[in-house]
Amino acid sequence: MNLSPSHPTEPILLSAARISTFDGQRPLTGASGFFFERDGALYLVTSRHVLLDEPSQHFPDRIEVELHTDPDNLTRSTGLSMLLYREGKSMWRDGKDGGGEIDVAVLEVDRTVLPQGCVLQAFTPAHLPVAGDAIEVGAALLVVGFPLGFHDLLHHLPVVRQAVIASSYGMRFQGKGYFLTDARTHRGTSGAPVLMRDPGATAAGQPLPWKLLGVHSSRMDIAGRDQTQDEALGLNCAWYADILMTLTGPRTSRT
Fold first, then answer.
1. Which of 66, 151, 186, 200 is the most buried (most CB within 10 A)?
2. Cβ(192)–Cβ(163) under 8 Å?
3. What angle do CA 110, 112, 117 make, to 5 degrees?
4. pLDDT for 75-112, tens place per residue?
5. pLDDT band, residue 72 (cuts 50/70/90)
6. Which residues in 161-191 are b (16+ Cβ under 10 Å) and which e?
């Protein structure tokens, strides 16, 4: 679903969603996510550890996503509650590859429960990089999300952090399905889209003129860092976005 509001708000700000996790009625954490559309189905994408994280004993049973409800007035919004389990089985999809589990999850959004007048923007497979795209180390990126839950409380919009590609794009860093970004990030940014401007799409006037390169997961640090002498690396893991083609594909091709 790609609905454009009658307002000069940049569409990229309507592609991200603020996620709150709950155990019943008990609030747990806040995170980021974004919308992805394929073959008529709409998905919410975020980090897997937002929905389930055994090491930290994080076991939510539902999430709430904030949605705009008036294309002419972005101060109006509502929370959409989405169950994570049905009859004991998870409703989301995640995956793994030869390097292990991938910290990305998708949850299909039931369009019939979207509020009337819902305003959002969704990425599609056309936004994923293809062979031959010039994506170089040091290229400028944007990370669109809700660091520490911070956002425009009046208009319910995310904020954007600048980043650059910090490892060879297309190469699996240390054999894992992610690349590195150099950016200042915080808790709550997990699940945010990692984007690079697409000049061709900009010239064509497309509403989302961006390449969807990855899904921000977490900050990277090194064991043994002297916290009194050494600053944090300031590097982050971004899982390659092509995993979305597996997670949103026919059930038989999902892992």
1. 151
2. no
3. 110
4. 999 999 999 999 989 999 998 887 788 999 999 999 99
5. confident
6. bebebbbebeeebeebbbbbbbbebeebbbb
Q: What is the CATH number of the domain that holds 242?
A: 2.40.10.120
Chain mean position to CA 157: 14
**Across all residues in the chain, what is the average pLDDT?**
89
CB 114 within 8 A of CB 80: yes
**Full residue range of the structural domain in which residue 229 is found:** 11-253
Residue 100 zone, left/alpha/beta (φ > 0; ψ -120 to 50; rest): left
How would you classify the pairing of strands 193-197 and 140-145? antiparallel
Instruction: Report CA-CA distances (Å) from 97 to 36, 135, 177.
Output: 21, 23, 8
DSSP secondary-structure letter at 15? S
71 within a domain of the structure (yes/no) = yes
Examine residue 5 and state whether it is found in any structural domain, yes or no. no
Q: How far apart are CA 2 and CA 81, in angstroms?
A: 21
Classify residue 241: in a domain, yes or no: yes
Domain count, the chain: 1
The closest of 141, 149, 76, 67 to 111, measured between CA atoms, is 67
Tokens of 64: 């709430």
First-residue to last-residue Cα distance in the chain: 26
Using one digit for the tens of pLDDT, what is the confidence trace for 149-181? 989 889 999 999 999 999 999 999 988 999 999
Helix (H) / strand (E) containing 89: strand 89-90
